[in-house]
Amino acid sequence: MRPGGVGKTRLALAVAAALAEDYTDGLAFADLAPLRDPRLVPATIGRTLGVREGGGRSARELLLDYLRDRRVLLVLDNFEHLLAAAPLVSDLLQRCPHVAALVTSRAPLHVQGEHRFAVSPLATPAVASDANEESVSTSAAVQLFVDRAQAVAAEFALSDDNAGAVADICRRLEGIPLAIELAAARVSLLRPEALLARLERRLPLLTGGATDLPQRQQTLRATLAWSHNLLDPVTQVVFRRLAVFTAGWTLQAAETVCADADLPAADVLDCLQELMDSSLVRWLGEGDRRSRIGMLETVREYAGEQLLLAGEFEHIRARHAQFYASVATPAGATPTTWPWVWVESPESTHQVLDRLDGDFDNLNTALDWLIAERHIAAGLQIAVTLNSFWARLGQYAEGRRRLETLLDLADRTTQPSEFRAERAVALTEAGTLASFQGDNEQARTFHRASVALWRELGHGPPLAVSLANQGLAEWVAGDALQATELLQEALERSRAANLAHTVVVCQRNLGLVARSQGDYARAAALFAESAAHPLPSGWFRGYTQARSLSCLGRTASLQHDFPRATASLRHAFEVIREARLTGQALADCLDFQAALEGMQGNVGRAVRLFGAADTHWRTSGAHRFQPDEAAYARDVAVVRAALDERTFADLWLQGAALPTPRAIGYALRELELESH
Q: How far, CA to CA in Å, does 257 sit from each of 262, 271, 343?
């Protein structure tokens, strides 16, 4: 067998070699790939063992008779297309007590005594911005790539310069041995960096395997076609339709999207089992408290080609989008109650976000299709739901682009009044994202339009939320008087409607106005009240509480109440860590902690924390509120003046390089860095 051949065959031979000494009558390897008729399996195994046919007896009888008293290890390679012969293996094991069989197959044999061992993809290097030869060379996938690359280009060597590209190639190919071998065979023509750039579509590139391999192993598409063609025709239908899912799916999703009048939903489960037995789909785990199933991206690309060839792509994409539009809406939500149902109804919020967390990519895919097909209402429905994820993950630009596209579509429709409530919701969400990005003029425009629409529609709760958002935008624009009036109205409406979350937001925003006017006592009281207000559990509570606590800490530091400032910011960081917050919430808190350290003379810590904050501002795309910019510039200038430029720059870079968990740990003094 050629070294570096198909992973399961190579592994089987390695295992067989390790066990060979236990089988005194030898090891027999039978390659079953060329066979097309299961009835030929006994004769093929017999020829491998040197069993002579004759005497009018069948090949099966002769084989059983030959092996009855012998200690032999049979290696039966590529059994998946000959499963009708599986009873022979069971018969051999039962009637020949000293015989063992090591079978490689893309599908289980389903016989007694069978023990299955899945051949997983090779381990790939962890994602790292500073990948080098030493850090990636221990990966099995990288080792295979280097070995196969040197077979076609002896001068090839892994180096610090190409380690990142090689690691990315192995991750992109998901550790699939054949894919890695086929890719490595291209290094005689393409440097790893150029090869990586061409892997956006894997299947056309991954060709040209060794000619002494079976044809199905000479291109990755042929290998996948081999497995696909062994499937039941109904399972082939389910296989190609699953290509519309991104990053996995639940059983409910598969049954809803793949089933139709000719394929009952009840049959989808059996098809999924066959696909799993054939190693074309796999369990992804229990991340969202329910079993999720998925495909390797390489397999998904092939399934997508089959979906296009079948002429079903647009139809199944539509079913996918319809399904996720339906699951993205909290129970009982309407345009006049949502997104406020998310923040004011704890169980609905927590359950829906928990359920959808694993389907973030599917929701984005569905939204893109709805936008392309101009399904405005359903698109807005998903977009409002996704806004919670975009804000939490700091994906402000992506969310805003989609919301603005939907708003533009709603404006240009022949009946714009049909979408007034949906448009008002989207304006609020787009304004929030614009605010995160520091585009306050556009945020103010969005919020003013939202308030005007809700006043026309006469809906109190959503109007309260929009007023709170407009009030913040007016304060950022420098109009403290109008900001206060809007926020007071929003606070009164929120209390009357029992909108606990919006009450907290109004209190915090009024605190920001008071602090900017130098009224630290009133600001501190408002922030403390906002932070202590009881709210339902979930991401919204974490975000709101963290923001209120960090504002309280900053205000206490301006009052030179350092113990209270330290306690408030520590509490804020603990909430941020528990709620896994990023973006503005974390960056603001790091800024305020850095300023506090500087006020207390801890210059090195201050600079590192400013550097860490800068990384989170830049990577999230969020921006400080304009009124905070001047204070930030003064705080940085204080610590910069205490150090020479080189020391300041070195400390800043140290902080900027801290991963999020270490940055939080450093802010909390749970870890220390070497002194400069």
A: 13, 14, 30
Give yes or no for a contact between 251 and 272, defined as CB atoms under 8 angstroms apart.
yes
Using CA atoms, how far residue 67 sits from 31, 54, 234, 493, in Å, is: 19, 16, 40, 87
Q: What span, in angstroms and rounded, lies between the C-alpha atoms of 181 and 165? A: 15
Task: Quote the pLDDT of residue 3.
Answer: 30
> Can you tell me the distance from the alpha carbon of 516 to that of 276, in angstroms, rounded to the nearest whole number?
61
- Give the pairing type, strands 282-285 and 292-294: antiparallel
**Residue among 382, 367, 387, 388 nearest 540 (CA):** 388
Of 304, 322, 326, nearest to 241 by C-alpha is 304
Written as six digits, the tokens of 505 are 């937001």
DSSP 217: G
Closest CA to 376 of 339, 425, 340: 425
- 449: nearest Cα among 420, 412, 482: 420
Site of tokens 């809406």: 329
Q: Which residues pair with 101 in a beta bridge?
A: 74
Is the confidence at residue 438, as pLDDT, over 60? yes
| pLDDT tens, position by position, 244-301 | 998 889 899 999 999 998 999 999 999 998 888 877 888 886 544 457 898 887 788 8
The DSSP annotation for 92-123 comes to HHHH-TT-EEEE--SS----TT------PPPP
Distance CA 532, CA 534 (A): 6
Tell me if the bond preceding 339 is cis, omega within 30° of 0. Answer: yes
| Euclidean distance between CA atoms 15 and 659, whole angstroms | 41
Contact 276, 282 (CB under 8 A): yes
Tokens (6 digits) for 216? 């199905």
Supply angle C-alpha 397, 400, 401, rounded to 5.
Answer: 85
Q: Whole-angstrom Cα distance, residue 85 to residue 105? A: 13
Residues whose CB is less than 8 angstroms from the CB of residue 9 and which lie 6 or more positions away in sequence, other chains included:
1, 77, 78, 104
Amino acid at 202: R
d(CA 308, CA 306): 5
Q: Where do the DSSP E strands lie in 249-291?
A: 282-285
Closest CA to 310 of 242, 357, 362, 360: 242
How far apart CA 368 and CA 349 sit, in angstroms, is 24
The dotted CATH code for 232-312 is 1.10.10.10
What does the mean pLDDT of the chain come to? Answer: 83
Cα 423 to Cα 411: distance, rounded to the nearest angstrom: 9
Alpha carbons 530 and 548: distance in angstroms, whole number: 6
Residue 34's pLDDT band (boundaries 50, 70, 90)?
A: confident
CA proximity to 533, closest of 511, 517, 514, 563: 511
Q: Does the structural domain 531-667 have CATH classification 1.10.3470?
A: no
* Bridge-based pairing state of the strands 27-31 and 73-77: parallel
CATH topology (fold) of 328-458:
1.25.40
For domain 7-103, is the CATH number 3.10.180.10?
Answer: no
Can you tell me the distance from the alpha carbon of 339 to that of 430, in angstroms, rounded to the nearest whole number? 13
Greatest pairwise CA separation for the chain in angstroms: 107
> Between vectors from CA 293 to CA 291 and to CA 294, what angle results, nearest 5°?
150
CA-CA distance, 76 to 28, in Å (whole number)?
A: 8
Tokens of 536: 């339902």
Ramachandran area for residue 2 (φ above 0: left; ψ -120 to 50: alpha; else beta):
beta
How does DSSP classify residue 249?
B
